[in-house]
Design brief:
It is built from 22 helices and 23 strands. It is α+β, with helices and mostly antiparallel strands and about 750 residues long. It has a six-stranded antiparallel sheet with strand order 8-7-6-11-10-9, with helices on both faces. Helix 12 crosses helix 14 and helix 14 runs parallel beside helix 17. The structure holds adenosine-5'-diphosphate. The site of adenosine-5'-diphosphate has 20 residues, from helix 14 and helix 15.
Length: about 750
Amino acid sequence: MKKTKDDLRWLTGGGEMGKTIRSKDWSETPLGPIESWPQSLRTTVSLCLASSFPISIAWGKEHTQIYNDGYWPICGKKHPPSMGQNFSECWEAAWPVLGPYFERALKGETSFVENQRMFLDRNGYLEETFFTFSFSPIQDESGEIGGLFHPVTETTANMLNERRLRTLRDLATMAREEKEEKETCALITETLSANPFDLPLILVYLLDESGETAQLCGIAGLEGANPAAPQEIHLKKDSNSGWPLEEARTSKKGIYVDDIEKRFGNIFCRPNPESLQKAFVSLITESGNENCLGFVIAGISTRLPLNESYQRFNEMLSTAINSTINESRAYQRERKRAEDLAQIDKAKNTFFTNVSHEFRTPLTLILGPVENLLSQTREVLSASVKTEIEIIYRNSLRLLKLVNSLIDFSRLESGRVEANYQSTEIGTMTTNLASGFRSAIERSGLKYTVDANPLPSEVYIDHTMWENIVLNLISNAFKYTTKGEIKVALRQEETEVVLTISDTGTGISETELPKIFQRFYRVKDLEGRAFEGTGIGLALVKELIKLHGGMIDVSSTVGKGSIFTVKIPLGFNHLPEDQISKTKLNQRIETLAKPRITNRAKAFVQEALRWLPEGANLSASPGVSGQADLSLLQRNQPSTSSDASGNDSLTTKIKKKRILLADDNVDMTIYLKKLLEKNYELIFVTNGKLALEAIRSERPDLVVSDIMMPVMDGYGLLKEIKNNKATVNIPVIFLTARAGEESRIEGWETGAD
Ligand code: ADP
């Protein structure tokens, strides 16, 4: 029976695959000539061809495959033989995955599978692909299953994109900061090893300091020793046989290597069984200067095309690794810097403590004999010798005070303070400490009230620390108060001891107030008795009070005065047990009844005495009433400046030149007087403002000025002198303890002569 062309009318259209099916000689296939196909097959094929969704059909006992235009690209180079081929033979490579679903469909069970990975040999190699598909049975005229309906969509591109983005994201969110550079490399490798399909091999190399040898710091994909992953690569020597690291470094860009077998032989990496063929060598560079730090070698999957999107992934990966390593380096640098600084700080503290201790011994050995000398009777020491010794004494005490505060402070800083908290009659102790200042304060014309009676409850304090707290606060009150009153009061309030020290001094402005407890902080150009100080006092006081579980507060009004309030809890429950002394209170009271004046207290009081206008005119040691002739603070008249030897007859004939000396340190003033009084007429003032007034009225020939002074400092004074036509020609010499080239230059720069 001859079929006519009309019989193929059902097979019109269907694009390229329609043509292929029409032109194919099906008589050579198990399906037989088209004309003999049952209606069920005809209907199925026309349905398939009419669809633009990729569909394949497997029909008959031999599962003969027919597909449409949409399915055609899935076949790759298998087409055209794949048209009419046995379905299971055609897709043999994917059969481990496809087979079970196919078999189930043959038994009548439909299956639907999403994004299934399978390896297809459609392009001459096994290629990693992803598909979403279903298999469903088609019944023929007999009611049997005549074939399978297989719509398919390829999701390879999406799946690869997602996978690669995930890898980049994992790298970006990887914990990295705390790690050393090498650890970071290992961590990067570990993170990347989660994606062996795109990165079958990862090697991270870092250059050593010579810049010529790269060390292996991260490896994934290879086990054990391997020629492709040496521990060390000499860039120049190994560039021909091994990885082209030197070439990458010189060309400053990534390089694809495609002759791995030639370079290293067979390299087998997970997860695919084929030997690695290609890899991408990229650079790790220092951000900012592009210095080469190392290399990343990323294997290319043997089962994926090295297309644009794979290459883009490699580039992005290289960028991400670069930023990870640079971030980690920056963090390490920062940490190292912090460590170095801490080290220096610690060394500085140790140095301060050591040096201060070293100072204290000779100072004590000076103070002892000097005190002995001063207690000698008038017959033994002449008045002038005694004056000199008093200067030694006062200044040794001053040094001792500075050294003590340095030791206290560096101990606190390094956390090495051992307190000894004892039950104390704090009222008596505070009164004793405060009374040391009475003479100085009253001589200056200030009113001084001390109101500290024994308290009803028990208080535990460290004696040296309390001494330090009280002395510092009273000494400050005196230093910054020139008129009015200083009040010291101690009382119990519920569960606390409250000490208040109020003055009617300069006060502290609102902006300065929060800063005065910072270490080394000092308010500038304050009107006070002296500008001496280190800015340690209040910082120390605050820490000492903290050690007692207490707090310090200050309220102040500029021009009216300040009130410092210290509060310390009663009892000992708040104190560390191992630092509480068991000595009984009544034993303590006995010692307090005969107060021992410590060198620390003497130093504070002596310092205060030196701030008095007639400061140096005082007895230096308690109990000794030396009356030194030092009424020189205003001026030495030419007539009184001649010495006993009479050899100044010449100088009195010639008019003496006049020098104005501005300095707030009494002892320095005495010293300068000794040096200069024979040949010059001297005028003394204690700050810059007074100096300006004296310059106007006395017209000195030379000004010699200290730099650090209260009210107006040396720089301020110099500016005023040099900005005024009337005084610009008066030469100015600065006196400073800050020796060295730098302060000399600084002086010249401000216009000193
Ligand atoms: P120093 O007195 O050595 O400068 P302190 O730490 O004792 O250092 O004090 C810090 C600063 O606080 C002082 O420089 C001063 O400006 C200010 N100050 C402290 N006590 C008083 C006070 N009673 N009246 C006014 N100012 C004060």
